[in-house]
Amino acid sequence: MVLRGYVPTSEETLQTLAALRLQSLNSDFSTHAPFPRLEELFPPHVLHARLPPPPHRPPTKCRGARLRAGLLAGGLWGQALAKQRAERDQRLRGRLREEGASTMAAIVEKWKLLQGMGRPEAMAAYVALVREWPGFGSTLFDVDLHAVRPRLGVGQGQPWPWATLTPLSPQSPVGSGPQRLWLGIGAKAVSLYKPGEPEPLDSFCYGRISSFGASDSSTFRLSVEDRDLLFETSQVRGCHPSTLPSPRVPQTDPLCPLYLQVDEIAQLLHTYLASAGAQRLPRPQEPPTSSPTSEPTVLPQGLCPAAEPWQHRPPVGSSHS
Fold this sequence. Notes:
Residues 278-321 are annotated as: Disordered. By secondary structure, the chain is α+β, with helices and mostly antiparallel strands. It is built from six helices and nine strands, in the order αααααβββββββββα. Mean pLDDT is 73; it is low at 153-167, 169-175, 237-258, 281-303 and 305-321.
């Protein structure tokens, strides 16, 4: 979860998590201790984000200009451009190695500060640090939110047309066009996050969800009170995401069955909705004369307890010298 970039936090905290992982694996710092690769300790996408973006070349509109560009690409100009690209790629690889070495050095310095911390304590501090994120424990999916529309305008049995987005809530406006989001499905609520943002754009208790279902192999509908949300997910051919190094780079092992994200989304929602419904039912073993206060508390529909702001606290033992 951390290495896939699904715990939005600062680089400082990510380095602390990497140091705690080293402490749990190797105990106190030693030059003879085995060092895992950096990508096994630190999210690679953070390092790649430091690199400058590739130069953008505007598309050639004129057909004649495109033809001339194609002819030049096959001659001396093409060789020069290929050489420039190779040199740029080499510089980027060198920059990436420098960033990786700098990050590893910072992680090692934090590892040295954990001297004397036992393996169970390091593991507990690691988990406690990750649990500070309100979305901890949720299953996250990369989705494109295509439509948010009133349910009254939806015809029965009619296909879903793409629609302009309306705000999820007054506090979290969403612009027009598809929005790349994280769909977080947890035990208490379904939440929508902007990738990399710790606080959700919106969160829906299961009491607010009236229905859900898959339109096809890549689109999923979620009905929340008076709104319908339409998501598009990726169809992943390969192993289940829990076995993949990254959800954005699916494996293509023919021995792995076809995996559909919409299937797992539906299964998780069904499980959590059934659990939430069971918790609302009165317990059969309770006597009929039991006080109403002994019944489980049910929040009114439309209310969902807001998650507290995520505040980073240093792990225990991080100040050891």
